[in-house]
């Protein structure tokens, strides 16, 4: 995604605000970014509290634990990466690599911008979209483990990955990976989607290979 697509997701009309929302200190940002990120962080917590209250969950300890599990640096940075936010973050130092926590704060800052510029109702809708995406992240299968389990269960060696950087500067590389497996003397390969991290590129390739091998090994096991 580019700035326009990110603006559309967060329902932000002014691209200048989007630029502020993806500019932590390493990208030339300052107090305005920190302010938006703080607002987004607290607003997201508030929406979760309201949603749990609607379901009759009033125990503050339970609510706090749910927030910590669902909204944290790992989940928000993964969501932000899938949204393409790192690709529009431009560090002042070309050698600087975007840190996951910076992606997390950018997501929060963009939500903060949306809430402050659009009001509660539109901001609430964006927060719900983010939370739905975070819930989906929790249910994504680990295909790297699944494909190896499938192979080993049927007596074959685990997957090998060939991963290359295909373009991008050092702070914003783009990788693509090919997963390779041998089944009954035949070589199977699957290329994944482009990703900003090697691990994500390999996960994508593993998912494609798993889908291929699932049908192959199912056929073999019933023949």
Q: Roughly what is the average pLDDT, rounded to an integer?
A: 90
CATH homology superfamily name of the largest domain: Ribonuclease III domain
What structural class do you assign from the helix and strand content? mainly alpha
Tell me the number of structural domains: 2
Write up this protein.
The chain has helices spanning 3-10, 15-21, 31-54, 60-70, 73-83, 100-118, 120-138, 143-153, 198-222; strands at residues 160-167, 174-183, 186-191. It has 223 residues and is mainly α. It has a 3-stranded antiparallel β-sheet. The model is unreliable at 219-223 (pLDDT under 50). 61% of the residues lie in helices and 11% in strands. The chain is globular. It folds into 2 domains: 3-138, Ribonuclease iii, N-terminal Endonuclease Domain, Chain A (Orthogonal Bundle), CATH 1.10.1520; 143-222, Double Stranded RNA Binding Domain (2-Layer Sandwich). β1 and β2 (174-183) form a beta hairpin. It starts with a helix and ends with a helix.
Quick gist of this model?
Helices cover 61% and strands 11% of the residues. It has helices spanning 3-10, 15-21, 31-54, 60-70, 73-83, 100-118, 120-138, 143-153, 198-222, and strands at residues 160-167, 174-183, 186-191.
Features:
3-stranded antiparallel beta sheet, mainly alpha, disordered C terminus, Ribonuclease iii, N-terminal Endonuclease Domain, Chain A, globular, Double Stranded RNA Binding Domain
Write the layout of secondary structure elements.
Elements lengths: L2 H8 L4 H7 L9 H24 L5 H11 L2 H11 L16 H19 L1 H19 L4 H11 L6 E8 L6 E10 L2 E6 L6 H25 L1
Antiparallel strand pairs: 1-2, 2-3
